[in-house]
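The records we work with from here on pair a chain with its fold. Each token is a code from a learned vocabulary of local backbone shapes. A record is reproduced here so that you can trace the correspondence yourselves:

_____
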Amino acid sequence: MSTAEVRIHPTAIVGPGADLGVGVEIGPYAIVEEGTVLGDRVRIGPHAHIARGARLAEDVQVFTGAVVGSIPQDLKFGGEETTLEIGARTVIREFCDLNRGTKAHGRSEIGSDCLLMAYVHVAHDCIVGDHCILANVVQLGGHVELGEWVIIGGGTPVHQFCRIGAHAMVGGGYRVVQDVPPYMLAAGEPLRPHGLNSIGLRRRGFSVETISTLKKAYRILYRSGLNTTQALERIREELPGSPEVTHLLDFITASRRGLSG
């Protein structure tokens, strides 16, 4: 344990094998178990529990009552040594519950610059990309994958093994039971795409031409009356050369649970 500039409240419990970076702060009644790694300037709030196997990069903030790196809620879990890895500057708000991986993947991963609002659950073996926002009470089942810049509205459960593609946005209070392609807005019961996430794409610097091309791909995929195989073939013929369209096609082709809508 490095002691340089580390501030630990007298009521906190820190395991002797915890690896603490410079400037770490650990609040009242927090527990940091042996076998954890806290990067420089990590801040742990009151009553938070950082469990064995948690790996927090620099400037991560963990708020009151969050449980980070707890063992999976998976009956197949056999006590194997796995991890939960959280990227730099990610914020974990009150009472989140974030599980580490199982032998299936070995780890759960949450990227950098994410915001996980209160009561979010991230189950075992999930992969959450950079810059994602999970609003209050979002619940990710095991093996869920989120691309970068995904936004999920409050109270939304995501079924195990589902994927949500990069830059997609899912409305609050709906169920995600199949894959949501990149760049889409999704809402409704059952969940289905409602157009392109154009505002989000503009905010992130996508060109007008790129957004227009993705809109054409969306119309072919969801408004042409073609089945998925036919739509993908037409998109390849009519919209060649776009890396964003290629990413969209690759995501759809790799889908195991099928597409929402």
In short: The longest strand covers residues 192-196. The chain is about 15% helix and 25% strand. Helices lie at 198-203, 208-223, 228-238, 243-253.
